[in-house]
């Protein structure tokens, strides 16, 4: 069991050579995708300061990309020990550039202020649905695994996580979803519950920036509130930006209540 993941909602793993080698191969493959005009049209937003890169990395179900071999390392081992051998999807390649954030396409003033002042903090899998953009649980992730692909200074838009926020969120979601067939959870409007829980998190949970170098990894609880900090005035990163690969494999059984359980 990873104590940090259970108690704090996150765990940072020290650099390992095998992970560093994987990150080098993944970076080379990711750069090809990031530079592809069609991928740029799909993924580049926030006035050119964020490449979203969902499903961008051409890895297989074991995480192998190019000549890297399967993804390994302490972080993935810890996740698999807790959640089992879930196949890996094509990783997101999130790239942040100097000047982030700028308003995202279609983002109104209130949403941009939230991005700027609250790091666009969110829980993954609660997607905006319909014209009213009501938040519903449409993706049930097992965990979030972040793997830096480029070096950058700690103030170069690091991932931030609110420590212990997964406990607040779990209580809120359990109250809203308890007694409802898990197969129907995706149709429950969680907007009000979600917004109230976020306010509680901002008032009670410390905000922790997680900066790491290639070869390191961070494991985040699926219900932890997290986001991306603004680019610091003195931040430094290579020309290709601050690049991180994220795996969020989805739980296989939506008929059970596993998503609501800890860790």
Automatic annotation (TrEMBL):
Instruction: List the SUPFAM superfamilies.
Output: Clavaminate synthase-like
Q: What is this protein called?
A: Phytanoyl-CoA dioxygenase (PhyH)
């Amino acid at each position: 069991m990873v104590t940090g993941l259970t108690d704090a909602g996150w765990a940072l793993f020290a650099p390992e050579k095998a992970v560093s080698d994987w990150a080098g191969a993944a970076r080379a493959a990711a750069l090809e995708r990031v530079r592809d005009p069609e991928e740029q049209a799909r993924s580049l937003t926030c006035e050119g300061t964020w490449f979203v890169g969902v499903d961008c990395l051409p890895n297989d179900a074991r995480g192998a990309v190019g000549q890297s071999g399967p993804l390994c390392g302490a972080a993935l081992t810890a996740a698999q020990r807790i959640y089992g051998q879930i196949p890996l999807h094509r990783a997101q390649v999130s790239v942040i550039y100097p000047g982030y954030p700028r308003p995202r396409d279609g983002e109104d003033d209130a949403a941009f202020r939230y991005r700027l002042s609250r790091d666009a903090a969110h829980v993954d899998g609660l997607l905006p649905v319909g014209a009213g953009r009501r938040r519903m649980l449409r993706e049930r992730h097992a965990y979030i695994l972040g793997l830096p692909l480029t070096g950058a200074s700690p103030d170069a838009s690091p991932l931030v996580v609110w420590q212990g926020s997964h406990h607040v969120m779990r209580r809120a979601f359990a109250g809203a979803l308890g007694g409802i067939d898990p197969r129907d959870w995706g149709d429950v409007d969680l907007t009000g519950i979600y917004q109230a829980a976020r306010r509680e998190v901002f008032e009670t949970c410390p905000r922790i920036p997680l900066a790491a170098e290639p070869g390191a990894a961070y494991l985040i609880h699926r219900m932890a509130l997290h986001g991306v900090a603004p680019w610091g005035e003195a931040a430094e990163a290579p020309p290709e930006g601050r690049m991180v690969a994220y795996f969020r494999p989805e739980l296989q059984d939506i008929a059970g209540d596993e998503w609501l359980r800890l860790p």
